[in-house]
């Protein structure tokens, strides 16, 4: 069944207020544009070590945004999706503070994953080298508890995000309580954040293991009993994503953003169309999120480069990364890799609009491709407004991903919604939401490698998109009661960075 497009946004960064102001925006200028909104972490606190992804209390709304009553009120207008941060919890949480005070005597001692619990016979250098990490350095911190006990805790992401033992009864009951709280307050879909890292096992990469799928199935079962659908968030080799899709309700199509950028940068649709033919259809299509543009998602399998090639040859991936840096006027280079803290080894940090050199026409065609693919299109709030890199925020925090996490005031939003590129994007989204053809059958049509063509058919209804990559020309036609209509963009070609 066709589902309306989703919005993904931080409540406090999209309108400068709390949940009441956010709801007014969705019920006002954005009324009927989105069927569901993914509220990025609104838990207490929203401004910890990782922009809310290190909750002190995962069952409490940050009071600066509102309360659970506001979430319920929002859910009466649109579907509400939230994060379940599976892998970790804040080092300021009540559970950890109790463990820090009482050590092994704490009622929460089994909740926090220690190195010793995974490697009871000790960890070898080979064991450490095998662990897959999103950031450089060891995924552990040494802590001396108040009672003098010394423990080595897993901290996959930052030293303030302490990993949970998801297979321990305490870890399981914690996650069940989070799910129940969300369900009780109107949330009907959750994203399992960082689930790929949640299960650790000696002698493995500790990433997306067979046991991880067992964990996913258990959480998904608990969710379905509560009326909650589950979306899995994993950046990894594309073959693994296809496998994951067979086990869950929804996965992200993280290969799409770099493949679309590659298609326009090289004027070649070969690799994009190869992916469209094999990609899972139970996918959230994205061009941008609160994180960076994934590179690992189109790369070769790091564990078997010879036998498991990527979607794009490595030399072209390297050129693509440099192309993004050039298109952004060098700004993305300042936010990516060792240039910024809180870095991700496998992502380029940049707004998608700037990654396309602020070319409004090509940007809209990229969005049209996204909206025509099977699945649920999810639009990031910065991308909705064709946002620019926030170099001031990056400079003040030093966090690479903040380049794409601008804080929009209500006045800014009102002004941005008047831009032709944004108005055209809203037209595209509404076409996807309302046209009956998108409930029918999808076909990738024959085309040469400099173009891409897609079509939907449902009974007498159709919608068709043809894009010529080199010239950024297109034809988007669709059936109406009076015949065939063609959508024409009012936006302009490329403009230089100002």
Short description:
The protein is of the alpha/beta class and 498 residues long. It has 18 helices and 23 strands. The chain has 3 domains: 6-85 and 169-440, Glycosidases (TIM Barrel, Alpha-Beta Barrel); 94-162, Oligo-1,6-glucosidase, domain 2 (Alpha-Beta Complex), CATH 3.90.400.10; 442-487.
Which key features would you list for this structure?
globular; 3 domains; 498 residues; Oligo-1,6-glucosidase, domain 2; 8-stranded parallel β-barrel; 18 helices; TIM Barrel; alpha/beta; 5-stranded antiparallel beta sheet
Question: In whole angstroms, how far apart are the ends?
Answer: 43 Å
Per the CATH scheme, the topology name of the largest domain is TIM Barrel
The CATH C-level name of the largest domain is Alpha Beta
Count of DSSP strands: 23
CATH architecture assignment of the largest domain:
Alpha-Beta Barrel
Beta-strand residue percentage: 15-25%
The stretches of 5 or more residues where confidence is low (pLDDT under 50) are none
**Shape verdict:** globular
The multimeric state of the shown protein is: single chain
- Count of DSSP-assigned helices: 18
Give the helix level as a range of percent.
Answer: 25-40%
């Amino acid at each position: 069944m066709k589902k309306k497009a989703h919005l993904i946004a931080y409540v406090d960064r999209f309108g400068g207020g709390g949940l009441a102001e956010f709801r007014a925006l969705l019920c006002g200028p954005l009324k009927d544009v989105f069927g569901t909104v993914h509220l990025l972490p609104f838990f207490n606190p929203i401004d910890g070590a990782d922009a809310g992804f290190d909750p002190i209390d995962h069952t409490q709304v940050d009071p600066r945004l509102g309360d659970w009553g506001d979430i319920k009120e929002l859910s009466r207008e649109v579907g509400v999706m939230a994060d379940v941060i599976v892998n970790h919890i804040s080092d300021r949480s009540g559970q950890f503070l109790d463990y820090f005070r009482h050590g092994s005597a704490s009622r929460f001692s089994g909740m926090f994953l220690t190195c010793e619990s995974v490697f009871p016979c000790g960890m070898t250098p080979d064991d450490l080298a095998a662990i897959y990490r999103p950031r450089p350095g060891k995924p552990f911190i040494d802590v001396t508890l108040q009672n003098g006990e010394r423990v080595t805790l897993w901290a996959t992401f930052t030293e303030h995000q302490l990993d949970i033992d998801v297979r321990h009864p305490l870890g399981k009951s914690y996650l069940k309580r989070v799910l129940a709280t969300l369900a009780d307050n109107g949330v009907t879909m959750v994203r399992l954040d960082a689930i790929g890292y949640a299960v650790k096992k000696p002698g493995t990469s500790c990433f997306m293991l067979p046991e991880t799928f067992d964990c996913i199935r258990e959480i998904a079962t608990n969710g379905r009993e509560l009326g909650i659908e589950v979306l899995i968030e994993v950046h990894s080799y594309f073959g693994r994503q296809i496998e994951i899709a067979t086990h869950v309700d929804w996965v992200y199509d993280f290969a799409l953003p770099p493949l679309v950028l590659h298609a326009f940068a090289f004027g070649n649709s070969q690799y994009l169309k190869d992916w469209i033919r094999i990609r899972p259809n139970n996918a959230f299509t994205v061009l941008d999120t609160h994180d960076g543009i994934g590179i690992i998602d189109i790369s070769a399998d790091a564990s078997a480069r010879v036998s498991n090639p990527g979607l794009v040859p490595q030399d072209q991936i390297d050129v693509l990364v440099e192309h993004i840096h050039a298109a952004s006027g060098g700004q993305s280079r300042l936010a990516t890799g060792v240039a910024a803290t809180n870095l991700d080894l496998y992502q380029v940090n940049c707004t998608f609009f700037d990654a396309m050199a602020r070319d409004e026409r090509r940007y809209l065609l990229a969005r049209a491709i996204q909206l025509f693919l099977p699945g649920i299109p999810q639009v990031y709030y910065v991308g909705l407004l064709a946002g620019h890199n926030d170099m001031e925020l990056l400079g003040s925090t030093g966090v690479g991903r903040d380049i794409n996490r601008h804080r929009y005031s209500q006045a800014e939003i009102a002004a941005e919604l008047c831009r032709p590129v944004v108005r055209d994007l809203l037209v595209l989204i509404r076409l996807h939401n309302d046209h009956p053809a998108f409930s029918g059958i999808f076909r990738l049509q024959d085309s040469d490698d400099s173009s891409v063509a897609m079509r939907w058919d449902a009974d007498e209804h159709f919608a068709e998109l043809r894009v010529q990559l080199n010239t950024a020309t297109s034809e988007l036609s669709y059936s109406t009661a009076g015949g065939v209509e063609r959508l024409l963009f009012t936006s302009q070609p490329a403009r230089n960075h100002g």
